[in-house]
Design brief:
This protein is mainly beta. It has no helices and eleven strands. The strands form two sheets. Strands 2, 4, 5, 6, 9, 10 and 11 form a seven-stranded mixed β-sheet that branches. Strands 1-3-8-7 form a four-stranded antiparallel β-sheet, with no helix packed on it. The chain is globular. 32% of the residues are buried. The model has no long low-confidence stretch (mean pLDDT 96).
């Protein structure tokens, strides 16, 4: 059973940057797609980015050009570099794996989740 632990959240001013990390344990990390989602207060959890095992990446339109997802298979870790942060990026950010397809933007197509890390962007 894989476990995911996110870290790196915090409070940052608009225009600033943060890097989130998600450490995986319990199985071979490199064989699985990884995703980042976020959930703002009172809103549904939404897709942010995903990186496949072949390192291909996909992003939500709202973060394209500002966020970068990457993975280090030697460290069993996936990252989310967030630049030019906006107040609307404020949310709890979740790491996910065990993607079952076919649409990576759908929350229900990911079966394993971390506990989340809070990101707050002040204006």
């Amino acid at each position: 059973q894989v476990q995911l632990v996110e870290s790196g959240g915090g409070l940052v001013q608009a225009g600033g940057s943060l890097r989130l990390s998600c450490a995986a344990s319990g199985r071979t990390f490199s064989s699985y797609a990884m995703g980042w989602f976020r959930q703002a207060p009172g809103k549904e959890r939404e897709f942010v980015a995903t990186i496949r095992r072949n390192f291909m990446t996909y992003y939500a339109d709202s973060v394209k050009g500002r966020f970068t997802i990457s993975r280090d298979n030697a460290k069993n870790t996936v990252y989310l570099q967030m630049n030019s942060l906006k107040p609307e990026d404020t949310a709890v950010y979740y790491c996910a794996t065990d993607y079952i397809g076919p649409d990576y933007t759908i929350v229900g197509n990911w079966n394993t989740w971390g506990q989340g890390t809070q990101v707050t962007v002040s204006s």
